[in-house]
Amino acid sequence: MIPVKFDYLAPTSVEEALAALGEHGDDAKILAGGQSLLPVLRMRLNAPEVVIDLNGISSLRGIRDDGDAIVIGAMTTHHDVRDHELVKEHALLLAKAAAEVADSQIRHRGTFGGALAHADPAGDLGAPALALGAQFVVQGPGGSRTVEADDFFVDLFETAIGDDEILTEVRIPKHTGWGAHYEKFVRVAHQWPIVAVAVTVKGSIDEARVGLTNMGSTPLRARATEAALAGASATEDGVRAAAEQAAEGTNPPSDLNGAADYRQHLARVLTGRAVLKAAGAA
Ligand SMILES: Cc1cc2nc3c(=O)[nH]c(=O)nc-3n(C[C@H](O)[C@H](O)[C@H](O)COP(=O)(O)OP(=O)(O)OC[C@H]3O[C@@H](n4cnc5c(N)ncnc54)[C@H](O)[C@@H]3O)c2cc1C
């Protein structure tokens, strides 16, 4: 289908984009890579009067070192996140998860910030960002503020970004030398996961961080499993016992791809696999 007619704005600075957002309010929609927005417009699930394209704002693109964190611009593509040396060195989990997003064409257009702002519970980047304790920098008319990962994902397709704000960059605390694995379960290649598990571990195992994809309306941490893994040795039996708690506190959907209890089973099995791979024990 053809989208409803809209005006197209192409600002070249964040300030210009914010001014346009302020002027048009609810009638406006931000465009990043368009890989989620354009299907929504074409299906006429949303009909903004104005589309504000961020692609002309070069300051929103790129990855830099900032001491104890790396900083990823919102308009950086999945392809660039996957391949960047700073990401591989300090946030390996993100590089591995970005490699699992859709297919090569979508990874070259879709953006890190767009995927996180879209907040699809089946999106591959929310759980790794949560597990790594990402900090989300959003800019609005009153300036910038930082939202901690635990507060960013509010509900299904809903984040802490205000209607008059833009996600500008994401700070990822360095996890240098941590092992990592993203275990994604799909029935069809290049698709959203039925369930996925994002794991990063320090040593074997001093500390573990486990994020769950598609196990509720937002990405979740498997905190009981994390607690059970802290200080544990990465033996198959020990890891699988800790992974038995991975579905605690989750509320996954039931749909054509699987019932909720099947997803909870998957979360336990995939967590065991992911932890063993992250710890280099599989
Ligand atoms: C066929 C197909 C398969 C896919 N498979 C997967 C998959 O396996 N895993 C996966 O994770 N994703 C998948 N995706 C989605 C893809 O990752 C998109 O890149 C992503 O969801 C949205 O990023 P985008 O840059 O394209 O954002 P857009 O589509 O441009 O925007 C998405 C939403 O976020 C808002 N937004 C964007 N940027 C900002 C910002 N900086 N500040 C505030 N709001 C903003 C927009 O207004 C819009 O509401 C798939 C998409 C397609 C079309």
From TrEMBL:
Keywords: FAD, Flavoprotein, Oxidoreductase. Gene3D superfamilies: 3.30.465.10, CO dehydrogenase flavoprotein, C-terminal domain, Uridine Diphospho-n-acetylenolpyruvylglucosamine Reductase, domain 2. Residues 1-177 form the FAD-binding PCMH-type domain. It comes from the Bacteria. Pfam families: CO_deh_flav_C (PF03450), FAD_binding_5 (PF00941). InterPro entries: CO_DH_flav_C, CO_DH_flav_C_dom_sf, Diverse_Substr_Oxidored, FAD-bd_PCMH, FAD-bd_PCMH-like_sf, FAD-bd_PCMH_sub1, FAD-bd_PCMH_sub2, Mopterin_DH_FAD-bd. This is Xanthine dehydrogenase family protein subunit M. It comes from Nocardioides baculatus.
